[in-house]
Write a structure and sequence with these properties.
The complex is a heterodimer of chains A (364) and B (539). In chain A, the strands form 2 sheets. In chain A, strands 1-4 form a two-stranded antiparallel sheet. A two-stranded antiparallel ribbon of chain A has the order 2-3. Chain A has 14 helices and 4 strands. The longest helix of chain A is centred in the N-terminal third of the chain and has 27 residues, at 36-62. In chain A, 68% of the residues lie in helices and 2% in strands. Chain A is an all-alpha fold and 364 residues long. Chain B has 539 residues and is mainly α. Chain B has 2 domains: 3-185, no CATH class; 241-362 and 379-526, no CATH class. Chain B is 70% helix and 4% strand. In chain B, a hairpin with a 4-residue loop joins strand 2 (85-88) and strand 3 (93-94). Chain B is elongated. Classes of the chains: A mainly alpha (364), B mainly alpha (539). Chain B: Its main location: membrane. Chain B: The chain crosses the membrane at residues 254-275, 307-327, 339-361, 391-408, 441-462, 474-494, 506-526.
């Protein structure tokens, strides 16, 4: 691993993120400030980039592909939405739509205490840790990995989606939760709040980026890479990889949860669509396009793909799936390391006999 | 005078009872006496009304035609009685001979008493039900009869049902006949009706029988109570059996769909370690090809339209197999060392195919003809109907299973597939063209997905998103069944199909999916390689 001071793409990205955050903060309120739409889009992109980092940490550095990271994203999102609704209810007295829709007089009992943010945060961490911990433990203990693990995580997120689509769970059902009015006592929807959320997302992104970089650059990071490249050998040498994998898996889940908590106040709604297998697959696509196993690549991939998606969902919503599938095919065939190949001009001849792709073999 | 109403009821009931017991058609009808009674006292009029109703039930054709206008005339007061008998004033016909004549002297139009009016209305409705030319008139008459099931003379509804040409009305008449028999005055008749009901146990007969518990006879008549209770017990047994069979049957049909969706996945996964996320879309394309074949037949050979499900088999297989081979040769061939990337690549293909179909055909459900061999079903017991569309899927899956087994076990290609599945390097060393085997196997797996699409088109709705509904269940079958074994896929599909269907009525479809997933995760703790793991080195 390159020392941090020499990792120029990484430093440039970090600088750009902090720079944008600073500029947004300084320009707020002046005529040069970004439009509300643009500021909001930047904030959402940053939340997606955090999500991509979460996946890159386990897929790029541990070789475990999760096609269910939307689950942890959704846990963060739902808990944040619960906090926002309860908080808005306490401050303004507006009864959430889903309660009226179900004809319920009061919040279900498990909504108690959600008007306190620390409690909500604690619940989010606990639920995420519990799900990730139990699922990770049983999977890694029986050494389920590779494609098996990927499709079981996908089934997990799919089942969670079906569960949340039910209206009687007390989490908004298929309409989800919306109508957030107040965050930390401040009204939502003002340009100041939008800018603040975007800046917060950018700073969290920068922080997670640095944290992950320090982790993978450490001795622990070397162990992660060793687990990815040859777990059997590492086990033979006497390392217990179960705890290592479980720890990184839970950390990754918590990062995804943070992304969800940042995302929901900015988009203003949460519904079971975030649990659809497509979103979880898309996260992997961002990482693959940006460059698996490169933290900066994951961030850039998430930002780029989602920026194009934001733009095309206005300009030409019908052609977006075709572009996305074309991009994926291009990445998996021609640029096995995504945009990182493009950066170093390491083009691979796709049909050639000795493909550089072979250098990137994965353990099953 | 005060006794008169009582006497009239008594006589009416007696006469009714007599007529019920011995069909009037057996004796020659005394038309003149009937007319005389219609012109008589209230008691005699009641008697005449009951006799008319009985005539409608079991009289001969000619007698019925003669008597049909009489009740209506009595109700409308267009019957004028005089010394020579009676005249139907509407049309001016003699009531007895139907010769034209005018009423003589000062005619008297008898007034129906409150007790007699329903009897005459019933008789009129009975004649209308049997003789009116239009369905709506007969249906209206049936409505009137339904209000007084206890007064309906025996044999009327049976006769009417036999002659009825309209299927819907016929079913209604038969229904009424059953409940009329249940409410008959004669206990023996009622018990016979109960026994007849229990021959066909379903939820409707159960409500009918439980309704009898509030009947007065239930408390007083021990034989009747016993008949009702044993009837209920029998019907409940029948329903329980029917429900159990229906659950098994639905589970079996779901399992056959799952099997067909998963067998292709399992072969490909066993061979190359690649999970084809586009399998669901190949299923969808199989269904669309079936639809295209149907449309082609409709315009080219309408006579063969009914057989499109059979004729589409080669097309569905070949089209999806060709797509699979193209996919393997152009994309997956380069990704064998990178199975996780192949997941993304096949997802890209799935996205592409789904949106391509969406653009070409639109998002709406396709309309399929239902040929006679997948229409309807045979009611077996209780509410269990042995439906032919599900049977089609099951039979199709069985044939597919047999063919797949034959291909894998009995053909050179199958031998090669098994060899490469067990040890790719060794197979390559002894000269098996592993790349070619991969390609052919991928084509086989994809073609099987196309067949699955064909088999489920008569049961499920066909639209561009349909593949998504099956793909995750199919994954679970592969994970549970183990890599590349047909037996494992069959057992896992049966298990998951049955468990889904068993849990669904208890806690709902979502809970069924959750529980199945948790069971699979738990199961992998015990056997990480699936149910029927191929023995060999762990990859």
């Amino acid at each position: 691993m390159m020392p941090l001071s020499k990792d120029r793409p990484f430093l440039a990205l970090l600088l750009a993120l902090v720079g944008v955050a600073l500029a947004m903060g300084l320009l707020a309120g002046t005529p040069f400030a970004l439009s509300r739409y643009l500021a909001n889009a930047i904030g959402q992109l940053a939340a997606f980039a955090v999500l991509a980092l979460a996946l890159d940490l386990i897929w790029g550095y541990l070789g475990i592909l999760s096609l269910g990271h939307g689950l942890f994203f959704a846990v963060g999102g739902y808990v944040m939405a619960m906090y926002l609704l309860k908080h808005s209810f306490v401050v303004t007295g507006t009864v959430p739509d889903f309660l009226q829709f179900m004809g319920w007089k009061d919040f279900p009992f498990y909504w108690a205490g959600f008007e306190f943010f620390p409690y909500a945060l604690f619940v989010a961490v606990a639920v995420t840790g519990l799900i990730a911990g139990i699922f990770g433990y049983v999977s890694f203990r029986s050494r389920v990995g590779g494609v098996y693990f990927a499709i079981i995580t996908q089934a997990l997120v799919y089942v969670a989606m079906l569960l949340m689509f039910r209206n009687d769970t007390g989490f908004g059902g298929n309409n989800g939760m919306t109508g957030f009015a107040v965050l930390f006592g401040w009204p939502m929807g003002t340009s100041g709040m939008i800018t603040a959320l975007a800046i917060a997302s950018l700073l969290v992104l920068a922080g997670v980026l640095v944290g992950c970089r320090l982790l993978v650059g450490s001795r622990f990071g070397a162990l992660m890479l060793a687990t990815r490249d040859d777990e059997t050998r590492l086990r033979t040498l006497g390392y217990e990889t179960l705890r290592l994998k479980l720890g990184v898996w839970c950390l990754s889940a918590l990062i995804a949860m943070c992304a969800g908590m940042l995302y929901v106040p900015q988009v203003g709604i949460i519904n079971p669509r975030v649990l659809s297998p497509e979103l979880s697959l898309e996260i992997a696509v961002w990482v693959a396009i940006g460059g698996r196993g490169h933290l900066a690549g994951a961030v850039i991939g998430a930002l780029l793909v989602n920026a194009v998606k934001f733009w095309l969902s206005f300009a030409a919503p019908d052609i977006w799936p075709f572009i996305l599938s074309g991009l994926i095919v291009l990445v998996v065939l021609v640029f096995p390391n995504g945009l990182m190949d493009l950066a170093t001009f390491k083009l691979v001849r796709p049909m050639g006999p000795r493909r550089a792709a072979a250098a990137l073999e994965e353990g099953r | 005078m005060k006794l008169a109403p009582f006497v009239s009821i008594l006589v009416g009931v007696l006469a009714g009872g007599l007529l019920l017991a011995s069909p009037a058609g057996a004796q020659p009808l005394d038309r003149a006496a009937l007319i005389a009674r219609m012109c008589g006292e209230a008691a005699a009029m009641g008697e005449a009304g009951t006799a008319l109703a009985a005539l409608a039930a079991s009289g001969e054709e000619a007698e019925r035609a003669w008597a049909a206008p009489l009740p209506r005339a009595a109700i409308d007061r267009t019957l004028a009685c005089d010394e020579a008998g009676a005249v139907l004033t509407e049309g001016g016909l003699d009531a007895l001979t139907r010769a034209p004549r005018a009423a003589q002297g000062t005619p008297r139009t008898p007034l129906l008493s409150l007790k007699n009016r329903p009897v005459y209305e019933l008789a009129d409705a009975a004649f209308t039900l049997r003789m009116a030319p239009s369905v709506s008139q007969r249906a209206a008459a049936l409505k009137i009869l339904e209000r007084r099931p206890a007064l309906i003379p025996a044999g009327l509804l049976e006769g009417a049902a036999q002659a009825e040409t309209d299927a819907g009305l016929k079913a209604q008449i038969e229904n009424l006949a059953q409940s009329a028999a249940l409410n008959a005055a004669d206990p023996a008749l009622r018990r016979a009706a109960i026994a007849r009901l229990t021959e066909n146990p379903n939820r409707r007969t159960l409500t009918q029988l439980t309704g009898l518990k509030s009947d007065a006879a239930y408390a007083t008549d021990a034989a009747f109570r016993q008949a009702v209770e044993s009837g209920i017990a029998k019907v409940e047994r029948g329903i329980a059996l029917g429900d159990a069979l229906a659950t098994l049957y639905n589970g079996l049909s779901f399992a056959s769909i799952l099997f067909m969706a998963a067998i292709g996945l399992a072969i490909i996964f066993g061979l190359m370690g690649v999970i084809n996320l586009a399998q669901g879309e190949l299923i969808m394309i199989g269904a669309y090809v079936t639809w295209l074949v149907q449309q082609g037949l409709r315009s080219l050979a309408p006579g063969l339209l009914d057989w499109y499900l059979v004729l589409a088999i080669p097309f569905a297989f070949l089209v999806t197999a060709a797509i699979g081979i193209a996919l393997e040769a152009s994309l997956l061939r380069h990704l064998y060392k990178r199975p996780l990337m192949s997941l993304l690549a096949t997802w890209a293909v799935s996205l592409f195919l789904m949106n391509l179909v969406r653009v070409l055909f639109g998002t709406q459900n396709l309309q399929f003809e239902t040929p006679f061999y997948v229409t309807g079903g045979v009611p077996v017991i209780g509410d269990f109907i042995f439906t032919w569309n599900r049977m089609f899927a099951i039979a199709f899956a069985v044939v597919t299973l047999a063919l797949t087994w034959a291909v894998v076990r009995k053909t050179p290609l199958g031998l090669n597939i098994r060899a490469v599945t067990q040890n790719r390097d060794m197979a390559a060393c002894i000269g098996i063209p592993t790349r070619r085997v991969d390609m052919m196997a991928f084509g086989l797996g994809s073609g099987l997905a196309g067949l699955a699409g064909l088999a489920l088109s008569p049961i499920y709705s066909v639209n561009p998103q349909m593949g998504q509904n099956f793909i995750i269940d199919a994954f679970m079958v592969v994970v549970l069944g183990g890599v590349g074994t047909i037996a494992g896929t069959v057992v896992a599909a049966l298990g998951i199909g049955q468990i889904n269907v068993l849990i669904e009525p208890l806690w709902g479809a979502v809970a069924a999916k959750v529980i199945v997933l948790l069971m699979i995760i738990g199961f992998l703790q015990w056997r990480p390689e699936g149910l029927f793991a191929v023995k060999g080195r762990r990859k």
